[in-house]
Write a structure and sequence with these properties.
The complex is a heterotrimer.
Chain A: H1 13-43, H2 49-53, E1 57-60, E2 69-74, E3 77-83, H3 86-93, H4 106-109, E4 115-119, E5 142-146, E6 151-154, E7 159-161, E8 173-177, E9 180-183
Antiparallel strand pairs in A: 1-9, 2-3, 3-4, 5-6, 6-7, 8-9
Chain B: H1 12-20, H2 23-32, E1 35-37, H3 46-65, H4 75-84, H5 89-116, H6 125-147, H7 152-163, H8 172-180, H9 187-218, E2 234-236, H10 237-262, H11 292-300, E3 305-306, E4 313-315, H12 317-338, H13 350-371, E5 377-378, E6 381-382, H14 383-408, H15 418-423
Antiparallel strand pairs in B: 1-2, 3-4, 5-6
Chain C: H1 2-17, H2 46-58, H3 81-89, E1 92-95, E2 104-107, H4 121-126, H5 146-155, E3 171-172, E4 180-181, H6 202-217, H7 221-250
Antiparallel strand pairs in C: 1-2, 3-4
Classes of the chains: A alpha+beta, B mainly alpha, C mainly alpha.
């Protein structure tokens, strides 16, 4: 468009410079204005303040027996909490870390060996793996199994077989007492 | 649209696209070199301003819709959540809320400009009629939008306005039930109003497209009301009017921003911060300010019209009011055939100008009448009587004054050309 | 130019008369008080808001809910997150159902909204002679001239003018439309203890609680006004630059 538009003849070099300067300034103002309007509009799509305020979940662990798991909601996602047996802890630790696709020791993934806390979302494409109940398939490594595309997780929630690229995520959590945690 | 021989562009990318879809040729023809009368005053900014407001309303509205819940139990809360918890939600809602008012301000001025300079006259009748259609769609959209926060005024405004249709003989009650989807304004009503409030702006866009298309067929009218004759009378749209429109738009936005940041609730009504309560009607129901003149005409008819000296009623007061209100807009559709005077611009029609300015004052007065309680008095005179007189002038202006002036107003001599009119 | 002025006048008329009509009944207009949040650079008075919160908690909250405000919002009043937590735990929230399907009580958290005095509106009506004490979260926006009206009502109690018959449960208030109000005078001198030496008078309480409730209704007032200044300055300067561009381009025309 600009190539065709005739701009009015100016009275000489001096006028030309001033017009260019003014037009540049106006253009800069327009760009700044548009950006400062665009940002609040886009930012409004980020989580709202009430959503952020609810971003922690407190869980009472006392009813859990050894070998049992519970699933709690945190930020609209399932969180797996498993009270592992000695055997499961042993299995998780008796692994050649160098051979894993996402190299992490079990010690890095737990605060207390008995309690394993994981975000229950398969790192492949976001399905919820099975294995929380002892009757559900737990995959070849006794942890969890994702039925969508066949990822196998071990008793530390690490990816051992299948298309998932990463271990099940460990959320931020703190023990508020011996038998209670706060996630988030 | 832009078919036929095409000039080549220097930029190869633009040329590649344009040779396949001549969108740049079209843009250049319609917005670049488009010959535009050189004597526009700032009244001619308001079309572009209205366009800007339409876009502002659609963008802010879509963002709001993402956090709004169209359910009677959650609507008010979801709006308050937007105001308190959604990032910048208060700003976006205030932009949308006040945007409705400023859209109407822009359109009212745009329409006044059209009346004053006779822009609705031959050959621009369809252009004008499309504009009236936009105005009608805007009113429907604004009305439904006002219902969505589900405050007291939302609820009772919806009740009163939908009840207008009950005045239609025989089928009125059934129509109202159909509109409500129930036996009162309730959740089904809110749901459909939300659906329609989201849909109608896009219909407006479609009609705006036709409106602009029609404008580019006839070209713009101008303050002199005479058609451009030579090249001396016109200027390319860009950069002359793009820059002038941008300047005018910025001044308008500045006033708009003042309201958004410093008087965001000034044009609204406090009762709409009370959640809707079907058991309690507010003491004083008023529509939004832009509906007030029409609301006054609705209320002006307080008497049945029947055959004198008998008990036979032909038109009840209720139906009379409804007909009067809708008729006031229907008149706009036929305006080009009511005012057939060959001179367009009020500049050269002193009589028309006087009556038109009285019309504007009268219209504003109708707005005042609409804002007052039904039993308000001005000294010893009931305001409703003055409202009836003002309604009479509104109708008289279109149905008597304009046709009469068309026949008998002599008018002043027109300038020979736009170019020379500027030199006066 | 004449026409531009004319159109601006018309615009002024349209805007000018719109809300002028909402003056309430036959009550006198609530007189204007000086508020810290007034004006283009208005800001919240945090000390007054903290006192106002105390008045709300010790007096108003017996009957009036504040259900759109969360405890976490109180950081706006200048409290730390820990202080807010301590305020929240003083309230009890009914939550649930738990694993056994039972509702249970727990201390409130900062993310909870202010706990309402009644379980629902019907209960509130039943306990208040059929009158519903309105929620206060939006009260200053839901009344014309909100802050001044609120202050006027709180300080407007008195003996009925002669000739005014009050029924049981009714009270005379100078600023209430119709002068009859169901709420008994809620404040009296000394009813709330202030720790910062501020006078413990009805008028001071009323001012403080109004400051608090203006914030409750319009928590972004300060942000809004501050942003507004920047936006207006930007737009005015931009308009000026644009006027220069336009003038320059049009210089050779006419």
């Amino acid at each position: 468009m600009a190539t065709k538009t005739k701009t009015p003849k100016s009275n000489g070099k001096k006028g030309e410079t001033r017009r260019d300067f003014l037009q540049l300034t106006a253009g800069a103002f327009g760009a700044v204005g548009a950006a400062s309007v665009a940002w609040p509009l886009i930012n409004s799509l980020n989580p709202a303040k009430d959503t952020l305020a609810l971003a922690t979940t407190e869980v009472d662990l006392s009813p859990l027996l050894v070998g049992q798991s519970i699933t709690v909601m945190w930020r609209g996602k399932p969180v797996f909490i498993r009270r592992r047996s000695e055997k499961e802890i042993e299995e998780a630790r008796d692994v050649d870390v160098a051979a894993l696709s996402d190299k992490q020791t079990d010690e890095d993934r737990v605060q207390k060996p008995e309690w394993l806390v994981l975000v229950g979302i398969c790192t492949h494409l976001g399905c919820v793996p099975t294995g929380q109940k002892s009757t559900e398939p737990r995959g070849e490594y006794g942890g969890w199994f994702c039925p969508c595309h066949g990822s196998h997780y071990d008793t530390s929630g690490r990816i051992r077989k299948g298309p998932a690229p990463k271990n099940l995520a460990v959320p931020d959590y703190v023990f508020t007492s011996d038998t209670a945690i706060k996630i988030g | 649209m832009a078919s036929g021989p095409r000039e080549k562009f220097d930029n190869p990318t633009i040329e590649w696209i344009d040779s396949r879809l001549p969108i740049f040729t079209m843009l250049n023809k319609e917005y670049g070199v488009f010959p535009t009368p050189k004597n526009f005053n700032y009244f001619w900014n308001f079309g572009a301003i209205a366009m800007f407001m339409l876009i502002t309303m659609i963008v802010s509205g879509i963002i709001l819709a993402m956090s709004y819940t169209a359910h009677v139990d959650y609507a008010f809360d979801s709006v308050e959540r937007i105001m308190r918890d959604v990032n910048s939600g208060w700003l976006i809602r205030y932009i949308h809320m006040n945007g409705a008012s400023f859209f109407f301000i822009a359109v009212f001025i745009h329409m006044f400009r059209s009346l004053y300079y006779g822009s609705y006259k031959q050959p621009r009748e369809i252009l004008w009629i499309l504009g009236v259609v936009i105005f009608l769609l805007m009113m429907a959209t604004a009305f439904m939008g006002y219902v969505l926060p589900w405050g007291q005024m939302s609820y009772w405004g919806a009740t009163v306005i939908t009840n207008l249709f009950s005045a239609i003989p025989f089928v009125g009650e059934s129509i109202v039930t159909l509109l409500w989807g129930g036996f009162s304004v309730d959740n089904p009503t809110l749901n459909r109003f939300f659906a329609l409030h989201y849909l109608m702006p896009f219909l407006i866009c479609a009609v705006v497209f036709l409106h602009v298309w029609a404008l580019h067929v006839t070209g713009s009218n101008n303050p002199a009301g005479i058609e451009p004759k030579t090249k001396k009378d016109t200027l390319p749209f860009h950069p002359y009017y793009t820059m002038k429109d941008t300047f005018g738009l910025l001044v308008f936005i500045t006033i708009y921003a003042f309201f958004v940041f410093y008087a965001p609730d000034y044009l609204g009504h406090p009762d709409n911060y009370i959640p809707a309560d079907p058991l309690v009607t507010p003491a004083h129901i008023v529509p939004e300010w832009y509906f007030l003149p029409f609301y006054a005409m609705l209320r002006a008819i307080t008497f049945d019209i029947g055959i004198p000296f008998t008990d036979i009623t032909i038109i009840s007061a209720k139906l009379g009011g409804v007909i009067t209100m809708f008729g006031s807009i229907a008149l706009l559709f036929v305006l080009p055939w009511l005012d057939t005077h060959p001179i367009r611009s009020a500049r050269y029609r002193p009589l028309f100008k006087t009556f038109l300015l009285i019309f504007v004052v009268n219209f504003v007065f109708l707005g005042y009448v609409g804002s007052q309680g039904a039993d308000a008095m001005v000294g010893p005179i009931p305001l409703s009587l003055l409202g009836l007189l003002a309604t009479g002038y509104y109708y008289g202006f279109f149905l008597a004054i304009l046709p009469w002036l068309s026949k008998f107003e002599k008018g002043r001599d027109l300038p020979p050309s736009i170019h020379e009119s500027v030199l006066d | 130019m004449k026409k531009t002025i004319l159109s601006l006048m018309a615009l002024g008329l349209i805007i000018g008369f719109a809300p002028s009509s909402f003056a309430a009944g036959d009550a006198p207009h609530a007189p204007h008080q000086h508020w810290h949040f007034d004006g283009i650079t208005g800001q919240f008075d945090k000390a007054a808001m903290q006192r106002g919160l105390k008045v709300y908690r010790e007096v108003c909250s017996a009957c009036h809910s504040l259900k759109r405000v969360a405890y976490r919002n109180l950081v706006d009043l200048g409290y730390t997150e820990d202080q807010v937590k301590n305020i929240a735990v003083e309230y009890t929230v009914t939550d649930g159902p738990n694993e056994d399907g039972e509702m249970f009580d727990r201390p409130a958290r900062p993310s909870d909204k202010f706990v309402s005095p009644y379980p629902n509106d019907k209960a509130a009506k039943a306990l208040n002679n059929g009158a519903l004490p309105p929620d206060l979260s939006l009260i200053t926006k839901a009344r014309h001239n909100g802050p001044n009206y609120l202050y006027a009502i709180l300080t407007g109690y008195g003996e009925p003018e002669h000739g005014v018959e009050l029924m049981e449960g009714q009270h005379w208030n100078k600023y209430m439309p119709g002068h009859v109000i169901a709420m008994a005078a809620p404040l009296s001198d000394g009813i709330v203890a202030y720790e910062d030496g501020t006078p413990e008078t009805v008028s001071q309480y009323s001012k403080d609680v109004t400051n608090f409730l203006v914030w409750a209704a319009d928590p972004y007032l300060e942000t809004r006004k501050r942003t507004g200044i920047a936006v207006l300055i930007f737009l005015i300067v931009f308009s000026g630059v644009m006027y220069g561009v336009k003038k320059k381009i049009w210089k050779d025309i006419h």
